[in-house]
Every structure is written in structure tokens, then in C-alpha cells.
Amino acid sequence: MADADANQDLAQEEEVQDEQEQSKEGKPSFLARFKMVLIIGLVVIAECATAYVLLPGPVSADGDVPTGEAAILETQNQSGEATDEEAVPKIEVDMGKFSITNYHPDSSTTVRINFHLYGVVREEDMELFSPLFETNEARSRELVNEIFRAAGAFELTDPGLGLLKKRILEKTNRLLGKPILQESVIADYSYLEK
Predict the structure, then answer these.
(1) Are 136 and 102 in contact (CB under 8 A)?
(2) Please, is 174 exposed, middle or buried when counting C-beta atoms within 10 Å of its C-beta (0-12, 13-18, 19+)?
(3) Whole-model pTM?
């Protein structure tokens, strides 16, 4: 009987040891957890470094990435310091009066927009701008009409009309084939929704 009790005690001890080993295997040690966190941290840092290298830097208005002195001038422009570009004399050019009416059937409303459009051109580019604009005036007016007809209420009621001005600038310069137009100015703007 003593042998049976001893065998039973040994069996119980083995079960306890098996349970302890299983519980150790179920919970990773501190070192294993640290290694896991370290590997995940290294992967995140590698992804951030890859994104930093692959993403483009600042792009100028003509689509080129500024380097050297151009990058310094771009940085000065962003920080508000004066550059030679601001010293260049510019001329406002009349691009026409617009009166656009647009019906929205989904909301049964009619929008009426009136404004006078001006373009800002460097004085030295004026002799190049005038003939190009005259030969493309009808297409330019059509572009402006399309921009305003496609615009949503948010863009049309924006106090500075920034997005609309930017679209006019980009599409007009693309139409002219050169970035001659420096800025678009919308004057006498009125927006009426009925």
C-alpha cells in the first residue's frame, strides 16, 4: 500500500509540474515580450523612414521641386520674408465680366453668380500674355463658366473664393501653355440662390 501511495504522490507531482510548464508556455517571459515590442518598434521606424524618403518634398508653382537657392527662396516665401519676386511690377488685366445662372434640379434651386474677373501678370510678360489671351479668350471664358458651374455651395460662399481662384489660375495657365498668369482676382462678386 505504501508503494501505491508513493506512486499516487509521484503522479500528482508530475501533474503539478506539467501544469506549471503549460502555464509558463502560455505566458511569455519578460524578455520575450521586450523582444516583441522591440521588433514592432523597429518595423514602425522603418516604415516612417521609407515614407520620408519616398514622399515628395515641396513643389513650386511650375511643378519643379525647388533645390539650392530656389529652396531657400521658397522657404523665405513661406516664412513671409520679402523676395525679388514681390519687387517685380505686376499689372492687372481685365479678363471680363461674368454673369452665370445655374439650375440645380435635385434641389429645385437656381443660382445666379455675377463677378468681374481680373488676372495679375508680370509687366515683362504682358506682351506675351496679350496675344495669347486674345486668341484664347472664348475658351478662357468657357473654362471659367465650367469652374463656377461645377463648384459647390461651399466653394461659392467661401469669403476669399480661394479654391475657385486657384482653379482659374491653373486652367488658364494650362490653356495659355505657359505660367504667365500670376494671380486671379474676382471683384464685384455676388451670389444669389433662389
Answers:
(1) no
(2) exposed
(3) 0.55
